[in-house]
Amino acid sequence: MKDRALIPLLSAIALAAIIAACLIGSTPMSPGRLLAALTGAGGAGDAIVLWEIRLPRAIAAFVVGAALGLCGAALQGLLRNPLAEPGVLGVSACASLGATLALFYGAAALSPITVPVAAISGALAATALLAIAAIHTSSVVTLILIGFGLSSFAGALMALLLNLAPNPFTLSDLISWTLGSVASRSFDDILLAAPFMIVGLVFIVLSRRALSALSLGEEAAHGLGVDLPRARGFVILGTGLITGAAVSIAGAIGFIGIMAPHLVRPLVGYDPARVLAPSAILGGVILVLADIGVRLIPAPAELRLGVVAALIGAPAFVWIAIGRGRTHG
Amino acid sequence: MAEIKLDNVCVEAGGARLLHNASASFRPGELIALIGPNGAGKTTLLKCALALMAPSAGTVTLNGRAIADFSPIERARLVSYLPQSRPLAWPVRVRDVVALGRYAYGASTTKLKGEDATAVTEVMRDCDLNHLADRRTDTLSGGELARVHCARAFAAKAPLLIADEPVASLDPSHQFQIMALIRAYVDNGGGAVVVLHDIALAARFADRLIWMKDGEINANGAPDETLTAARMKQIFAVSAMVAKDQNGWSLTVTGRSA
Q: A219–B71: do the CB atoms touch at under 8 Å?
């Protein structure tokens, strides 16, 4: 079967992309020096470049991309809508808002973990609201509308904060958070986010059969024995935790959650359960490659990863959407 | 054995009376056709039987226990459901759709083994789907798709099947094919409740007809007892000629009755 080979193939590509990200940079490192730095046999400079700068950055890009790819696939399965992603339900926006609030009030200076915790809190607040709504409404449209309202409200508050920013320094901080980046991320940033991502992953893995069943519509899924409120709650909680953690690492990065599942879907027979894992890996690969691009493109100031992701993602998405429109009438 | 019993079930929504004092029971060994005009309450009745809707009065039990008390999995193992609208969100492969019928047994589309694999293989064969197993559902004809949905519902091997308009928008030959599949399911020990709009088809295949109008059950009995021109006029407000010969029932609607 094609889909059996897909995960190993994508994993190999992911590994290659991460290695490439370690080799490429302002001072290219030869594979020999990379190996030496990995095993601790190389020079101190190389070790610092690898362990403190390039590897954490590549891993951060992969983890964030994987998180967004997985959440996009899960939400699309739940809402049976190929345009769903954490952004649609307002989770990314609320996470960014949390982070922005922490920056605005200077809480970020207190401790390095304040901003990540604030981002995760924002995402959890949004998911809690969505989870409560999901228990009380059976309508997916209502859920999307609530997400849209959340997203708009968080966006408005963000704009207000930017508007009131006391000095240009804070403003540039806020902007860099909104545009998204994995530059100068450390393993600590990733480790802080990891527990939330793992718990979220468990919720999503537990819902994967329900996501397949939901292909037939909610009524048929009920008939099949799917506990709909539970499935909705799990997916929303899972994506909330993972998205909040991803935003805490890299800020808001769009389109990965839409792009990766779209590319994977035809390769796995469109089954929402089978889409999950490859979407995550492909999302990671896309973001690692995009981040290599960010570092290679000559620009007066380093481009933001979120900007580059959108520059690749948006046209790709439009192209995919047009193809889909043609086959689905 | 599984028996669904509806006892004086009433459903009201927004001041409208969708179902009033409906009592009926569904059990294996019987193919029941639920007939009546649009808006008669047929789908509402089925939704109550499946705990998709809570009655405002009356009780619905499955094997003597309130249907709402069953976990979704427990219920799904006893009652299989083929809803009226069957939107496929993704063009999933035929075999994967049928495999979803095993959901209540913990089967996953990604790994299908043991009894689940056997059940899926069996219903795929019975519903003549083997040659379509790897096809995307959006490449199927209406008749093929109807067979896929039926196979999915049969795959649960539940003692009861509730099917809401399983033959809607099918040509006569495919209508017969689907009804024959449901008939075979009942003859093999299952029980089925099927909403049908083709009265002659219902009379030909069903053991019992439940006639509904304006949220009430008007008559409940074998075609021989309940299918009459007078009933057609009363329920559907049409004048009709009803006849039965060695080829089965025939029914001609000659116009709307005054």
A: no
